[in-house]
Amino acid sequence: MQITKVSFTRKYNLGGYESCDISMEAQIGEKDNPLEVITILSDNIEMEYIALQQKKQPPKEPFKSPMEAANNAQRERETIAKTEKPADPMIKVRSLFPEAIENRLDFTWANQGKEILIKPKEFLGTELFAQVHKTITANKGTYISAGRDSHWTVPI
């Protein structure tokens, strides 16, 4: 699959309402599954829309550099390890992230308490997504790509 055209149109309607048209065209090969291509294009359009919405709103707090955030997370893990290891797996998984990142994630129990499901509350951006993904996979977690329902799971 090769994306051949991307277009974006912003319209201001009567009454001050705004609407956006985002479209993509792709050239697919014989080996490409059209349903998979549609899903990929749909996900890309959704991410473009989310990115546009994020540009409208100022960030809640400034992002730290990935290195600084990783160092802070390491210090927090060391502090927890020195004091007392948390018995609650949810607290343990939450403690893997600095507070600024933890606040952007939603943690819930799943699979009858056998794993923790982690979903972003908002668009994370490339750097933050990569940092979260690296942290979770380093702790035996996996990422499930499912459009709006994409999430990570960490086994207990």
Q: What is the strand and helix layout of this fold?
A:
Blueprint: E1 2-12, E2 18-27, H1 34-56, H2 66-83, H3 89-94, H4 99-102, E3 105-110, E4 115-120, H5 125-138, E5 142-144, E6 151-155
Antiparallel strand pairs: 1-2, 3-4, 4-6, 5-6
Largest sheet: 4 strands, antiparallel
Query: Radius of gyration, Cα only, in angstroms?
Result: 19 Å
What is the string of helix and strand elements? EEHHHHEEHEE
Return the domain count: 2
Number of strands: 6
Average pLDDT number: 79
Seen as an oligomer or otherwise, the chain set is single chain
The percent range for helix content is 40-55%
Order of strands side by side in the largest beta sheet? Answer: 3-4-6-5
H/I helix tally: 5
Unreliable spans are: none
Shape: globular
Structural overview:
The protein has 5 helices and 6 strands. Strands 3-4-6-5 form a 4-stranded antiparallel β-sheet. A two-stranded antiparallel ribbon has the order 1-2. It has helices spanning 34-56, 66-83, 89-94, 99-102, 125-138, and strands at 2-12, 18-27, 105-110, 115-120, 142-144, 151-155. The model has no long low-confidence stretch (mean pLDDT 79). The chain has 2 domains: 2-56, no CATH class; 66-155, no CATH class. The protein is globular and about 60 Å long. With 156 residues, it is of the alpha+beta class. Strand 3 and strand 4 (115-120) form a beta hairpin.
